[in-house]
Amino acid sequence: MTRFKLTLEYDGTTLLGWQRQLDGPSAQEYLEKAAFGFTGQEVEIMAAGRTDAGVHALGQVAHVDLDTKLNEYRLLQAFNAHLRQLEAPVAVLKIEVAPEGFHARFSAQGRGYIYRILNRAAPPIIDKNRVWWLPYKLDIEAMRQGAAYLLGHHDFSSFRAAACQAKSPLKTLDKLDIERLGEEIIFTVEARSFLHHQVRNMVGTLKQVGNGEIAPEEVKNILEKKDRSAAGPTAPACGLYLSKVVY
Amino acid sequence: MTRFKLTLEYDGTTLLGWQRQLDGPSAQEYLEKAAFGFTGQEVEIMAAGRTDAGVHALGQVAHVDLDTKLNEYRLLQAFNAHLRQLEAPVAVLKIEVAPEGFHARFSAQGRGYIYRILNRAAPPIIDKNRVWWLPYKLDIEAMRQGAAYLLGHHDFSSFRAAACQAKSPLKTLDKLDIERLGEEIIFTVEARSFLHHQVRNMVGTLKQVGNGEIAPEEVKNILEKKDRSAAGPTAPACGLYLSKVVY
Which residue ranges make up each domain of chain B? Predict the structure, then answer.
């Protein structure tokens, strides 16, 4: 039995998320079915973290234990061939033999997300389901000022979903960069770990800063209130990408 | 009656192309239906050039004559609202009052295309139907050498589809740049006008240079043969984008 580390891309649009569900497709289910397809083994594939319905991944990481003679390259081909046969919106980007003691979730030292806003008058076409469309002017400088209050070690209760299962609301936000790239506004967010909906709730609040609903300084007050109702709405799933997991 | 210039984005995946067809959806039909939806006028919308089934547009240009009191901004909103209602994979990016004597096709001074290759082991997921997937190594330097023979004024018969209706196979290719951007190889191609399938046939041939099937110098021989069967296969439509029309 060998433990393999898989790096994954998926399109969350038609998925209920990472985790296997009884009532619809998930990235985990597709990958486990693909593995069964070429090994005949019923395996459980563990990811660095769950993603919600509609959220995409460019660099999710998972591990799987397989009894196989295929090398990493052949495994990659076998996974992707079976995923294509299943018409899964999932691909395996990279397969490596995992280091001793590796666990996709517990060994992870950090996670990175990006969030894409399409900021133009016309709705997205080529990037449909890939961005949050906001047709009005956003003040990116104000958003950056607001974002600065979120960096560092804080109680992020104001940005935490009710369903969040984390033991503590204390997290350390290492990066929250906001850049304009053509018609898009891109958030790059990094931390050791995140609360449920934390990135989408931060983006939803910073969008309110961007359109002038609230002042940048208000983000500090919202954080200090430790109350979800103080912050802005949850930004839609379709703009969010799990971009990397650091080990 | 006012003539308006429309700048358009569309996703060609489910379209039979730009032009109205009896047997399926087209960008033209969606736009004409949208215009009818808010003006009640049966209009004909003329584009700078036809695009084939599956080919995308980031900057197609068209014109339409409308009897309307709406200003450009309201027209943009009306078009896009009706296109969304039709679930059309088409958006109007910009509307301007056309200059005197403007004709989307006959006034055009140049066209620009981009062609996207995804060059990695794993198939495209987020960019499904947006790129040509080539999983093996491509020598971009050799492709550039081959591309250099195509620049300038030539008889492009070797890169011309049998169905091409152009009067002459003589065209002047102003730009054919090839760049690597992450996992992608991007072609940027510009000319006053192109033969039918010219860009896709050039890309299909340069891909053969990239994977070593033919030497870069062979592109010169292919061009001189003025025979379609001398060149490589037509690259798939899904990687091609009409990116701009210059007036």
Answer: 2-97, 110-246
The β-bridge partners of A64 are A4
Determine whether A52 is an active site residue.
yes
Residues of A in contact with B13 (CB under 8 A): none
A93 contacts in B (CB within 8 Å)? 120-122
Q: Which CATH class is domain A110-246?
A: alpha beta
Read off the amino acid at residue A145: Q
Per-residue pLDDT of chain A (247 residues; tens, 9 = 90+): 999 999 999 999 999 999 999 999 999 999 999 999 999 999 999 999 999 999 999 999 999 999 999 999 999 999 999 999 999 999 999 999 999 999 999 999 999 999 999 999 999 999 999 999 999 999 999 999 999 999 999 999 999 998 888 999 999 999 999 999 999 999 999 999 999 999 999 999 999 999 999 999 999 999 999 999 999 999 999 999 999 999 9
CB contact under 8 A, B122 and A93: yes
Preferred mutation among B93, B126, B131 to probe A, highest tally of A CBs within 10 A: B126
CATH code reported for the domain at A2-97: 3.30.70.580
Nearest CA in chain A to B183: A93
Q: Which chain B residue lies closest to A80 (C-alpha atoms)?
A: B122
Same fold, A2-97 and A110-246: yes
Choosing from A52, A65, A67, A155, the catalytic residue is A52
